[in-house]
Design goal:
31 strands; disordered N terminus; eight-stranded mixed sheet; 1039 residues; Severin; alpha/beta; Rossmann fold
Length: 1039
């Protein structure tokens, strides 16, 4: 194939025919047809010689590689090929189990899925040479070629059944097959979840008739080979006349019949393990100081405990990158397909042993900046001419140094006051902003928090209103405050509402709070100015009084209808009147159906799942809420929404304002005081107490040659450069995609500066600056060596979750698989030493990337399953958009901690295990958490003394109902396990509700979907099958 390398998977950016064009991309745009067109027409491929194209000239020593031998799924005994049998454990880099010619390449290509090839072979498929494997070669019809037999259970799919559905033999109605692949997995194609897609390409797209129907492709040159442009490898030595019998629904990655004689199964321990990678990094870099004095250093993993010493580049707690060595040219970037991005968490909290950011105050003159590009003074500015001028590191413009800032240079050309000035010696610091940086050139007022409680029937009846009012009495004592101040400057206000809004005057001079009702929700206004927003300490007595009265005042209500948009509008109006920014805490129970702006109707429609219209389920309803988001951002009004739904509430629309204002959405389905009360209060406390900045605007500047092109987060963008956030807290991250606009130089590297202008909780205007310098390289091996899997998956999750607003899930999943194969194939071709094609070779820094990618494709938003609630899918989609690297890492690979052999005396946690059912043992007890859910799993043979110490019960059989907390018992085991759980709850941004499940009980099903290395509950491949599948894709790209 041409040297130009692999063609990009279609970016989500280019508008493609038949695909909602989507601005902002996944990798570079394709020069050739969609999905790349590898090589010319399908070449015939002779079975026995499974070799891979030797890579071009080696560039620099290759990075360490971890190699995984491909699983030989086969029915016939393998012909001996003289290779040693594979030892367990990922050992020497190149080894592979004996291969049969068709191992792992059964069903050439993704089976020509759903293609209903009755009639002529696919046009443009240039079937020169022998017919393609699996393609009705005399005898049984092609896989997935509408063969009689019902379509797969739960697959609701128009058009012919899909590959792996009714293949030779019985239809796969969820039947559990012997052997790993797809037990009842409702799907055939790239192992993705339950979706209506058969082979990766455009499956189920009712491709009856001419190929690619429904995907008009007016491309020059030959049409893409095979379905959807995946090259079908030619026929393998004629061994596969149609699907093998005894092959109940094998899916592309799991070739050959799983029924039949037992096979040599690839040892799961021999494929790369996430827990091992985490453990190795902790062993190698844990407890050490990471000092940021070098350009382009890859930091320790997010899971490793380390201390950062800022010596001129921002700490990885503030900025992480998908790679710390950018490719020098756009062509290289396009060839390797590794997305270039940085994930910025501007307000990240620092551990106690790290220095907080210094504040630099230049008085009236304000921060010193480059005259041309407006970058702020930082370590990358070069002082020249004896210190009288400085040259900007971003745009090379030479600027005069202001007289007050002048300082002599030492013999190395460095300013004498280098170490006294944080802006010259540190990667992160703050500037006090002058009036020029304030609204209307006047200093801002401290922000305010307004608590808005839905007092409709269900919230009163569940006891929620009383719970909130009682909690607020103590919680308001802990409002965030500036370091070194006695009390918080934040003002507070209170509103209750159902169909109408009630505002409360809690001025300190009053004996009793006063209530004012606004019933005209169409023209929202705040009925009182003085006494609505008050200082908590001054008005404490009146506020206590109010919080005691609210539950009684509405105790007899039978009003079940609510409004929602007017509530947010009221908050914005209150902040406008007080000329401040702030946050609304809204506690809401049901869909707003009362007559008012923003009234919603039920539009949940399970029939849309797995169709091209599924994306509408994730799109907010346009109109009122869109305008509200803009008003909120303009006023610096952040919205945090606590939802307590008992049915569908159209979360996609209700959460639209929070997700554009830097807010969060918390959801408690079927809220019950006993089981969910404490869980909700933990979330509320964390939310009120967390450190936060308001009315923020952020800009990312870069040195010449590349720039920030796309932004993902809980943000609002008015133009292409300014990231606006009504508020930004310590858990919110913005993922920024970078693209080349010129060649980068290896000498100067690449510089980035993130500048965030915001108002502190004390009402000061500040600029927070984070600087980071990266290496540039013309060697792809350098790029792969300094990749960071956790950052890559954060980027892929956010870009895929944004893309599902505009494209069918099937396309998005395809692009994910494609790009995974591309990145790994490019590595194999350009960086790895030559080796047998039967081997999967992965870059060391990306060896567990496939497990995260497979897990991402099994997440609720990307699974087309009618069993999942639309609101839950929308909720997960939105919460991931604002997540930082550590949060997406944990979400996609939960921690599974064995507790049964816990050393009670030791402070150390037991080492986490791989997330797979194979790791569970009947006599074991395991804790699993992913930052959002937490389970305590009890094996059916758990030792009775363990159960006695933990639950004060003689055995598991005595456990009644669902428990959600461990009793407080006075014994070392109970204390230690409770302290582990509370330690995890403390550490994570969200509270987690502990769910205690017994092995083989019904609730255990929910627990199992978190074992991400196994098959998905709602469809989706196991890690092993996905790896085999990706390996096959890579081999196709390389042949």
């Amino acid at each position: 194939m041409s040297q130009q390398g692999y063609v990009a998977a279609p970016p989500y950016s280019q508008a493609q025919p038949g695909m909602g064009g989507y601005q902002g991309g996944f990798g570079a745009g394709p020069a050739q047809p969609l999905y790349g067109h590898y090589g010319g027409p399908p070449q015939a491929f002779n079975a026995p010689c499974l070799t891979c194209v030797a890579p071009g000239p080696m560039q620099s020593p290759p990075p360490p590689i971890s190699s995984v031998a491909q699983q030989p799924f086969q029915t016939s005994p393998p012909p001996a090929m003289g290779q040693p049998q594979m030892p367990p454990g990922p050992q020497s880099p190149h080894m592979s189990p004996p291969q049969s010619p068709q191992a792992n390449m059964h069903m050439a290509g993704p089976p020509m899925a759903g293609q209903s090839m009755a009639g002529p072979p696919m046009a443009g498929q240039s079937m020169a040479g022998p017919p393609m494997a699996g393609q009705s070669m005399a005898g049984p019809p092609m896989a997935g070629q509408s063969m009689a037999g019902p379509p797969m259970a739960g697959q609701s799919m128009a058009g012919p059944p899909m590959a792996g559905q009714s293949m030779a033999g019985p239809p796969m109605a969820g039947q559990s097959m012997a052997g790993p692949p797809m037990a009842g997995q409702s799907m055939a194609g790239p192992p993705m979840a339950g979706q209506s897609m058969a082979g990766p390409p455009m499956a189920g797209q009712s491709m009856a008739g001419p190929p690619m129907a429904g995907m008009g492709r007016p491309f020059p040159g030959p049409p893409p080979p095979g379905p959807g442009g995946f090259q079908q490898p030619g026929q393998f030595g004629g061994q596969m006349a149609g699907p093998q019998l005894g092959m109940p629904g094998a899916f592309p990655g799991a070739a050959a019949g799983m029924a039949g004689p037992p096979q040599k199964k690839l040892d799961p321990d021999s494929i790369p393990s996430t827990t091992q990678v985490i453990e190795d990094d902790q062993a190698k870099r844990g407890g050490q100081v990471f000092s940021t004095n070098m350009r382009g250093q890859a930091p320790p993993l997010v899971t490793t405990d380390f201390t950062v010493e800022d010596q001129g580049n921002a700490s990885p707690r503030f900025m992480r990158c998908t790679t710390y060595a950018l490719p020098c040219t756009a062509d290289l970037a396009k060839q390797c397909q590794v997305p270039l991005a940085t994930i910025i968490k501007p307000f990240a909290s620092l551990p106690n042993n790290e220095t907080p950011l210094y504040v630099v105050n230049h008085g009236e003159t304000g921060p010193i900046r480059c005259n041309r590009c407006k970058a702020y003074m930082c370590p990358y500015m070069q002082f020249i001419e004896g210190g009288r001028r400085f040259q900007c590191g971003f745009c090379s413009c030479v600027n005069e140094v202001p007289v007050f800032y002048f300082q002599h240079l030492d013999h190395m050309g460095r300013r004498v006051d280098f170490y006294e000035r944080p802006e010259l010696s540190r990667g992160s610091y703050e500037f006090a902003a002058t009036m020029d940086y304030c609204k209307n050139n006047k200093p801002p007022n401290p922000p305010a928090y307004i608590f808005m409680i839905d007092v409709s029937y269900s919230n009163i009846k569940s006891g929620l209103v009383k719970l909130i009012c009682d909690e607020l009495k103590t919680l308001l004592e802990d409002l965030p405050r500036e370091d070194g101040t006695e009390s918080s400057a934040i003002k507070v206000g209170f509103v209750t509402y159902n169909k109408v809004l009630h505002f409360y005057n809690v001025k300190s001079a009053l004996a009793q709070p006063q209530m004012m009702v606004v019933s005209d929700t169409a023209e929202m206004f705040v009925p009182l100015l003085d006494g609505f927003l008050v200082n908590y300490q001054e008005s404490k007595a009146v506020i206590y009084n109010l919080l005691d009265q609210i539950p009684d005042m509405f105790a007899d209500t039978n009003e079940s209808e609510t409004v929602f948009a007017p509530v947010i509008q009221a908050g914005v109006e209150a902040f406008k009147a007080a000329e401040c920014s702030g946050k609304l805490f809204i506690f809401h129970s049901s869909m707003p159906t009362a007559e008012a702006p923003g009234k919603l109707k039920n539009r949940d429609d399970k029939k849309l799942v797995n169709t091209d219209k599924e994306k509408t389920l994730f799109q907010p309803q346009k109109g009122v809420y869109e305008q509200l988001s803009k008003d909120c951002v303009a006023q610096g009004c952040c919205v945090d929404l606590f939802l307590f739904p008992s049915q569908y509430v159209d979360l996609a629309t209700m959460a639209d304002v929070p997700s554009h204002t830097g807010g969060s959405v918390y959801k408690y389905n079927n809220f019950q005081l006993e089981t969910d009360g404490e869980h909700f209060l933990r979330d509320l406390r964390k939310d009120v107490e967390k450190s936060i900045g308001f009315d923020a605007i952020m800009r990312v500047r870069t040195s010449t040659g590349f720039r920030a092109t796309d932004f993902f987060g809980a943000i609002h963008m008015n133009n292409t450069t300014d990231i606006e956030m009504a508020a930004v807290d310590c858990d919110k991250a913005v993922t920024v995609e970078l693209k080349h606009d010129d060649t980068l130089s290896e000498e100067t590297g690449a510089l980035m500066q993130c500048a965030l202008l915001y108002t502190t909780i004390g009402g000061q205007r500040r600029l927070r600056i984070h600087n980071l310098s990266l290496n540039c390289s013309s060697q792809l091996s350098e790029l792969y060596k300094s990749c960071e899997t956790d950052s890559l998956i954060n980027f892929f999750a956010k870009s895929a979750y944004r893309a599902i607003l505009n494209q069918p899930l099937k396309n998005v999943r395809e692009i994910l698989v494609n790009q995974t194969a591309h990145m790994l194939a490019c590595y194999r071709k350009n960086c790895a030493s030559p080796s047998a094609a039967s081997q999967l070779i992965l870059p060391d820094a990306m060896k567990v990337f496939p497990v995260y990618m497979n897990s991402l494709m099994k997440t609720a938003p990307l699974v087309g399953s009618t069993e999942l609630s639309t609101d839950d899918r929308a909720h997960q989609r939105l919460s991931v958009m604002g997540m930082g690297v550590e949060d997406t890492q944990l979400l996609l690979y939960p921690r599974l901690i064995p507790l049964h052999n816990l050393d009670v005396g030791s402070e150390a946690l037991p080492a986490p295990l791989r997330c797979s059912e194979e790791r569970l043992i009947d006599s074991g007890i395991f804790l699993l958490e992913n930052g959002h859910s937490m389970f305590l799993w009890l094996g059916q043979a758990s030792p009775p003394d363990f159960i006695q110490n933990l639950f004060n019960l003689p055995s598991l059989a005595h456990m009644q109902g669902l428990m959600c907390a461990l009793p407080e018992l006075d014994n070392p085991l109970s204390k230690r396990i409770r302290s582990i759980i509370s330690g995890l709850l403390e550490k994570r941004p969200n509270s987690m509700k502990l769910q205690i499940v017994r092995q083989k009980d019904k609730p255990e099903m929910v627990f199992r979907q978190f074992l991400v290395e196994d098959k998905g509950l709602h469809g989706g491949a196991s890690y092993m099958d996905f790896l085999c599948y990706v390996h096959r894709e890579i081999r196709q790209l390389l042949t």
